[in-house]
């Protein structure tokens, strides 16, 4: 991938960034992402350690995956929870907290400096998906910034986030695809990657109605934690049996060890899955 002048976002801080990958990332590259939020050590590896140590760990982990599959180059990524579900409604009843411009720009700057793409993840709570995507649009104009949406915290039943597992319908995924496709066309930038998290049957409804778009690369990401046998079964039942486009797999530095005798899967074990995941995320 080469770097070119980034598209204008109307924000001088963002427009000073220079990392601009050209062309579609998948399937020529495997994306390898560290997930979390710099304000929380518990939310994921992205915020567990200081910036430099976190990036060093990212690079070291990538070496393990590159060794496991030397034929597929790896694209580093930072996956920020940019809109976080909350247990309280907030002023507008949205049950979510939008990260400040300062926080989002900070992580985007880390990505720019490290030649890493950046994902902005939405946990919408009770807020409308369209409004949350609009909040992030100025960032998504950058060629190296992509989107994640998390059905777990899409509370269509009206329940509080964290009390039940939420869901998205194919229509919601299509809404995100159409939004990203418009951003791509209007700004003449490479295709966007859309990561959709999933670890239960009910999290994604009517998957056959999800419509592909040449401007958006959809990754269905097996996001559950637990022992290898459970993770493999979930991948088979909810990702392999209900294919959309590309597949992803999530690993947990802490939660995958929570059950007695459990452990984190090796790169070789994950790459033995069918289909072979093209997006790898560590939390």
Explain what this protein looks like in three dimensions.
This protein is α/β, with parallel strands linked by helices and 283 residues long. Helix content is 31%, strand content 22%. It has 8 helices and 11 strands. It has an 8-stranded parallel β-barrel with strand order 1-2-4-5-7-9-10-11, surrounded by 5 helices. Helix 5 (129-140) packs parallel to helix 6 (170-187). The longest helix is centred in the N-terminal third of the chain and has 18 residues, at 51-68. It is globular, with a radius of gyration of 18 Å. The model is unreliable at 1-5 (pLDDT under 50).
Features:
22% strand, two-stranded parallel ribbon, disordered N terminus, 31% helix
